[in-house]
Amino acid sequence: MKRLYKYQSTNSEANEAHVIIYPDEHAPLFAQQLADVQNQLEELLKTPEMQGYQPVFARYFISDAANQIATLEPSVSREAYAVSVVQQPPLCGVKVALWVYMIADVEVCRIAEGFYAVKHGVYNHYWKSSDIMLDGDSEKQTIKHLLDYSEKLSSVGLSLADNCVRTWFFVQDIDNNYSGVVKGRNEVFATHGLTTDTHYIASTGIGGRSANAATKVLMDAYAVGGLQPQQMNYLYAKSHLNRTSEYGVAFERGTYLDYGDRRHVYISGTASIDNKGNVLYVNDICKQTHRMWDNVAALLAEANASWDDVGVMIVYLRDMADYDVVKSMYEERFSGKPYIIVQAPVCRAAWLIEMECMAVVARKMSDVADF
After folding, report:
1. Which of 221, 177, 224 shows the shortest CA–CA distance to 202?
2. In the chain, N or C terminus with fewer CB closer than 10 Å?
3. What's phi and psi for 252, nearest 5 deg?
4. pLDDT of residue 8
5. Is the pLDDT of residue 11 over 80?
6. What is the average pLDDT across 81-107?
7. Which of 4, 83, 96 lies closest to 47 in space, CA to CA?
8. Angle made by CA atoms 220, 226, 228, in degrees to the nearest 5
9. Band of the pLDDT at 369, cuts 50, 70, 90?
């Protein structure tokens, strides 16, 4: 089963798509479900409507990393683009699901292990997938991730402050380890010019793990080279949300990038929170979902975007027992749009649900170079 979203450029440049793929059959073996998902992607890319498209980033959501990674790893290592793997069980009952971001007529090249450049026009887009850190606590592993990523960016003439658009932190036992992620990120950002007076980076910090119990933190990231400063902007929706720095956390609620013919919008992990930083509707999954949607809608609106422009949504639930009600709410409101609901606790225990999304909005041609 696939959910596909395509954005067709008005000038036939850089058409792009998101697809979420689930196994068609709930086969008993992980290897069978994995093969099903990968075959569906291969068949999709052979269709006339996807002529010229190629994956630039993919994420596997798996149910049991310790027992599944040995089966998955060989195929992941063969891919010519960045591939992320995280234990965040898909709550529809399958063992594996796949999100793939695809762009037409681009060149993808490997820069380093897990670090790939996607070249088109005057821009280079850099996707990083998770490295495995085995030493230290969550604070030390976060610092290592960010410093290693900063070095990778520096090797291609970029920096965290000027070029990183989006990060994802997957935290094992988030209730105990998230504070270390916050401390580590704050420490690195303070030395890289990322402050409340400048800006931070859009991000999701969420429960997730690798196969190795010593790995406390995984990190994915996305950066763009070739941007002018005015092309990257930040979203606040102050009527609905407060600055994360008010409670000691360093990330932006959302970021958008302006290109000549489109605007890309990246909404960070967003939950049921008000503009004072309070959790709203404790223990009420339905009301928390509606407030979360209101917050995301306010962020999208600040970028002159709407739900119609959203190409993919990832939804995180703390309690798997909430799946049926949340699934019915999403199907009623977003039927047909690519989304996935996974089990992944949010960084505050009182938040029952969180979501992130990516959107693309058509723009009139301006003096900003084409994507």
Report:
1. 221
2. N
3. -90, 150
4. 85
5. no
6. 97
7. 4
8. 105
9. very low
CB atoms within 10 A of CB 148: 16
Q: What is the chain's alpha carbon radius of gyration, rounded to the nearest angstrom? A: 19
Q: Is 48 left (phi over 0), alpha (psi -120 to 50) or beta?
A: alpha
Burial environment of residue 43 by CB neighbours within 10 A (0 to 12, 13 to 18, 19 or more): exposed
In contact, 133 and 144? CB cutoff 8 Å: yes
Please, which residues bridge with residue 5 across strands?
18
Query: Which amino acid does the sequence have at 241?
Result: L
- Cα–Cα distance for residue pair 204/251, rounded to 1 Å: 9
16, 147, 213 from 150: Cα distances, Å: 27, 5, 25
Mean pLDDT of 14-34: 94
Q: Residue 343 and residue 360: Cα distance in Å, rounded? A: 27
Separation of CA 64 from chain center: 20
| Cα–Cα separations (whole angstroms), residue 196 to 147, 193, 246 | 20, 10, 9
- Residue 254: beta bridge partners? 235, 267
Cα gap 63→66, rounded to integer Å: 9
∠ CA 308-310-314, nearest 5°, is 135
**pLDDT above 90 as % of the chain:** 91
- Rounded Cα distance between 53 and 100, Å, is 11
Mean pLDDT of 204-226: 97
Is there a contact between 128 and 220 (Cβ–Cβ < 8 Å)?
Answer: yes
> In this predicted model, what pLDDT tens digit does every residue of 123-169 receive, in sequence order?
999 999 988 999 999 999 999 999 999 999 999 999 999 999 999 99
Integer Cα distance of 184 and 73 in angstroms? 29
pLDDT digits (tens, 9 = 90+) for 177-213: 999 999 999 999 999 999 999 999 999 999 999 999 9
Q: Distance (Å, rounded) from C-alpha 322 to C-alpha 44? A: 32
Placement of tokens 């960016």 in the chain: 153
Confidence of residue 261 (pLDDT cuts 50, 70, 90): confident
Residues 157, 225 contacting (CB under 8 angstroms): yes
Q: How confident is the model at residue 317 (pLDDT cuts 50, 70, 90)?
A: very high
Quickly count: other Cβ atoms within 10 Å of residue 324's Cβ. Answer: 10
pTM comes to 0.96
Calpha distance 86→59 (Å, rounded): 8
